[in-house]
């Protein structure tokens, strides 16, 4: 009777070891039914050079509702991209994680960064045409940085981009034009209506102070996020 129990125990142990060995050695391989070729995804930035890469938070001034207000547009990496052939410079910003574009507009010689009242880490500026949404439109934007140094760096690079566009971009620096240092009347006329629309979105000095104050309030509310 004792020998029978010993044999049963040995058989059980042998079966367990064989089962573990079988599980360890099992290496399934599944071959794909079809093989898909690698596809190169274009970012439309292949012919551009980075002038700046920096993290920022972007707001837009929304006038579509009953009351106008600042709305957060996204947080992520902002780039200043210089085109290698035309020397145009554009601002491109993508949201974290989703990488969805939240800013895509060209820098023009007459764009002006206005410091945010009450904050030395934020600026407000107007954009003639932004292409982040399906329908291009003029925008009033506010951009905030995590540190004063980053804000100053962005301002310096922004001014550098304005200078590049003014002196080297063919759209504004036509070497065949006798009035080389001025924007031609034809080019100005084509943009005049857009400029007027953009100016409508710009507040007077008192309202601008109120708007930038709201930015500061948003900054304080979201301070923990940076």
From TrEMBL:
Q: Which Gene3D superfamilies does its entry note?
A: Pleckstrin-homology domain (PH domain)/Phosphotyrosine-binding domain (PTB)
Q: Which residues form the RanBD1 domain?
A: 29-167
**Pfam families per the UniProt record, alphabetical:** Ran_BP1 (PF00638)
Task: Reply yes or no: does the keyword Phosphoprotein apply.
Answer: yes
Q: Name one GO molecular function term.
A: GTPase activator activity
UniProt-listed CDD domains: RanBD_RanBP1
Q: Which domain of life is it from?
A: Eukaryota
Which biological process terms from the Gene Ontology are attached to this UniProt entry?
Answer: nucleocytoplasmic transport
Q: What InterPro entries would the database entry show?
A: PH-like_dom_sf, Ran_bind_dom, RanBP1-like, RanBP1_RanBD
Q: Where is this region: Disordered?
A: 1-30
Keywords in alphabetical order, please: Acetylation, GTPase activation, Phosphoprotein
Q: Name one GO cellular component term.
A: cytoplasm
Task: Provide the family line.
Answer: Belongs to the RANBP1 family.
Write out the function statement from the record.
Plays a role in RAN-dependent nucleocytoplasmic transport. Alleviates the TNPO1-dependent inhibition of RAN GTPase activity and mediates the dissociation of RAN from proteins involved in transport into the nucleus. Induces a conformation change in the complex formed by XPO1 and RAN that triggers the release of the nuclear export signal of cargo proteins. Promotes the disassembly of the complex formed by RAN and importin beta. Promotes dissociation of RAN from a complex with KPNA2 and CSE1L. Required for normal mitotic spindle assembly and normal progress through mitosis via its effect on RAN.
Q: How does it assemble?
A: Interacts with RAN (via C-terminus of GTP-bound form) but not with GDP-bound RAN. Identified in a complex composed of RAN, RANGAP1 and RANBP1. Identified in a complex that contains TNPO1, RAN and RANBP1. Identified in a complex that contains CSE1L, KPNA2, RAN and RANBP1. Identified in a complex with nucleotide-free RAN and RCC1.
PANTHER family given in the database record: RAN BINDING PROTEIN, RAN BINDING PROTEIN 1
Q: What is the name of the protein in this document?
A: Ran-specific GTPase-activating protein
**Species for this entry:** Psylliodes chrysocephalus
């Amino acid at each position: 009777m004792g020998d029978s129990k010993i044999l049963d125990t040995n058989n059980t142990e042998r079966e367990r070891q064989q089962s573990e060995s079988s599980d360890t050695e099992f290496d399934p391989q599944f071959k794909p039914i079809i093989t898909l070729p690698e596809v190169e995804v274009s970012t439309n930035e292949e012919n551009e050079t980075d002038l700046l890469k920096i993290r920022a938070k972007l707001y837009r001034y929304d006038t579509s509702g009953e009351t106008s207000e600042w709305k957060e547009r996204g947080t992520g990496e902002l780039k200043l991209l210089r085109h290698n052939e035309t020397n145009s410079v554009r601002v491109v910003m993508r949201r974290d994680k989703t990488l969805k574009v939240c800013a895509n507009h060209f820098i023009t010689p007459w764009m002006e960064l206005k410091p945010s009242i009450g904050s030395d880490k934020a600026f407000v500026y107007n954009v003639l045409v932004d292409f982040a949404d399906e329908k291009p439109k003029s925008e009033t934007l506010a951009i905030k940085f995590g540190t004063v140094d980053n804000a100053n760096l962005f301002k310096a690079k922004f001014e550098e981009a304005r200078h590049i566009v003014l002196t080297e971009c063919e759209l504004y620096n036509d070497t065949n034009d006798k009035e080389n240092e001025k924007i031609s009347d034809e080019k100005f006329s084509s943009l005049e209506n857009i400029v007027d629309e953009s100016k409508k979105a710009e507040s007077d000095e008192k309202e601008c102070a109120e708007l930038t104050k709201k930015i500061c309030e948003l900054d304080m509310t979201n301070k923990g996020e940076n």
